[in-house]
Amino acid sequence: MGAKPMPVPDADSRRFWEGCREHRLQIERCADCKTARFPPAALCPHCRSSRSEWVAASGRGTVFSWIVVRHPVPKDMYAGEVPYVVALVELEEGVRMPTNIVGCAPDAIRAGMPVEVVFDDVSADITLPRFRPQVPS
Length: 137
Ligand SMILES: [Zn+2]
Known about the structure:
Blueprint lengths: L13 H8 L4 E5 L5 E2 L14 E5 L3 E10 L5 H4 L5 E8 L4 E6 L12 E8 L5 E7 L4
Antiparallel strand pairs: 1-2, 1-3, 4-5, 4-7, 5-6, 7-8
Bound molecules: zinc ion.
């Protein structure tokens, strides 16, 4: 049984992963046209500016799309975790983030369902942002 693949922070994404480790969701946006982008990147895909800034995300969004994983691949690594949900969540800031939906039955997930971030400390270095159904306030 091998170790699960983990994100490897690079120069562009280091700040994002540092924020997650502190349980803060941060999104990079263009300092010129203010377009948010994910994943972090050196250039703005909208105006090509290399000036960027980081903003605190609300941590709220909606389910854009998802799949339910029922057959673990590789089998020995994920056998104890199926079924689990891999989703694209559209954040309030307008970017879509690949993630997992947790805290609800896979069959209960609906397109447009409001979700909020939860942080999962999977190792000493890496904390993964996952999303659960929003609790109505
Ligand atoms: Zn821009």
